[in-house]
Specification:
It comes from Streptomyces stephensoniae. It contains 18 helices and no strands. It is mainly alpha-helical. The chain has one domain (about 30-220, about 235-425): Growth Hormone, Chain: A, CATH 1.20.1250. Helix 8 packs across helix 16 (about 360-370) and helix 14 packs antiparallel against helix 16.
């Protein structure tokens, strides 16, 4: 009997040694929710700059004489770099930690926004808005939310994904009306300074409250079991590319990337960039059009969180198909709703589009997690890159279409047709077991 007790004690010692530091008792409110709250605030602060491009197309065109295509190209560079940076940022977070990567990214956003105040040529716009802010915001993209969710949560992942995704819309809700008022009353430069300050204010919160892994606090992830913090992953860039090549050999990756590219084209590339100038073409004041975009942000929060709840309960593929089909139908009606004043049908469109805006994220991330396991954050980063490439293409082509045709109508119709294609693509994604080996392994 004594030998049995001693053997059990030795086994327990060995298990604790393998696990690393022994977990502490779970607090009443799990630390994961604090980390999620800091992540939410960070994404809100980083989203401030995302409200500017649509507001500044007309002021920059008026002051400098730059074409809408040139301004759209700067926004396009921003969106493309945002997307391409995201998967590398996820791997860099594995190597250097979330706090360092995000604090550096916020500083880059602030630097780009401040530098733009003194620009005098369109190439400077492309460097400051396009490159600096694109790299910074890309490092805080949805792959950041995916990394936090994957590390800190086992239960409620869909709900937390929806909440963190809604953070970008919350930033839009806060900053879009404010920046629109600043642009109208004081010019575009004070608005750019405001977004820079918003990014800088968040840095102390990240540095003081964010933790890279539950083991740093001696805790298990929410709803899971304690695991030791893994050693820093070296070769972040190599791993990111390796994961891409492995995922690219699978059909679901291309379907997810294709649907998400259309998602980006029909949201960030089209509505966020060109809705305000398009409404202004029909005589609507910029502040009124910006307020409508802010209302999209209100319902985006509701729709994304509800989508996360649905993703925990229903087939993610069918959810995506419904979201894209309804989005496409709404875009086909938009040209008929444009008017100098806000009419009830336009309000209905705004509410509907807000509910659908990034409702696609929780089911897309769930499918990435289902298909690619531990590498899902990096794979989702590459899928997000396709989202931003789609947004970048439409941000540029939308400006060109306006210069050539004198109207945005053709862009709305084309985007509606693309959404129908995305709905069909969603339905043919094959299912996979919940547990899979990492694709980069």
């Amino acid at each position: 009997m004594t030998e049995t007790i001693e053997s059990a004690a030795q086994d327990g010692d060995r298990q604790r040694s393998r696990a690393g530091r022994r977990p502490r008792p779970r607090p009443r409110i799990h630390r994961a929710w604090t980390v999620a709250a800091v992540t939410f605030v960070t994404i809100v602060g980083g989203a401030a700059f995302g409200t500017l491009p649509g507001l500044l197309i007309n002021p920059l065109h008026t002051e400098f004489g730059w074409s809408r295509g040139e301004i759209g190209l700067a926004a396009s560079i921003n969106m493309a770099l945002y997307g391409v940076t995201a998967p590398f940022a996820a791997a860099l977070m594995d190597r250097f930690g979330i706090r360092r990567v995000v604090a550096t990214a916020l500083t880059m956003v602030a630097a780009g926004a401040l530098a733009s105040v003194w620009m005098t040529a369109s190439w400077q716009l492309m460097i400051y808005w396009g490159v600096l802010v694109g790299l910074g915001t890309g490092s805080m993209a949805m792959a950041f939310a995916a990394t936090v969710t994957h590390r800190w949560f086992v239960a409620r992942r869909g709900l937390v994904t929806g909440i963190l995704t809604a953070a970008g819309a919350s930033g839009q809700l806060i900053f879009l009306p404010l920046c629109a008022w600043i642009v109208s009353e004081h010019g575009w430069r004070p608005a750019s300074v405001t977004t820079a300050l918003a990014a800088l204010v968040v840095v102390p919160f990240v540095w003081l409250l964010m933790r890279d892994h539950p083991a740093d606090a001696g805790l298990a992830p929410y709803g899971g079991v304690y695991v030791a913090k893994p050693a820093p992953a070296r070769g972040a860039a190599r791993r990111t590319v390796k994961v891409l090549f492995s995922a690219a050999r699978t059909g679901p990756f291309w379907l997810l990337a294709g649907t998400f590219a259309i998602c980006g084209a029909s949201t960030n590339g089209l509505i966020r960039t060109h809705f305000v100038p398009s409404a202004h073409d029909h005589g609507m004041p910029i502040t009124a059009a910006a307020s409508l975009l802010a209302v999209i942000g209100v319902f985006d929060v509701v729709g994304t969180i509800f989508s996360g709840w649905l993703t925990d309960r229903f087939d993610a593929r069918r959810l995506l198909a419904v979201y894209y089909a309804l989005r496409g139908i709404s875009l086909l009606f938009l040209p008929m709703l444009m008017a100098p004043e806000v009419q009830p049908p336009m309000v209905f469109f705004i509410v509907f589009y807000g509910l659908d805006w990034v409702a696609t994220v929780p089911p897309t991330l769930a499918l990435c997690r289902e298909q690619y396991g531990d590498d899902s954050a990096i794979v989702f980063g590459w899928v997000l890159a396709s989202h931003q490439v789609g947004a970048a293409v439409v941000a540029f082509l939308g400006g060109v279409a306006r210069d050539v045709f004198g109207s945005y109508d053709v862009v709305w119709y084309a985007a509606g047709a693309l959404c129908a294609v995305a709905a069909l693509m969603s339905l043919v994604i094959r299912r996979a077991g919940a547990a899979r080996a990492p694709v980069g392994g």
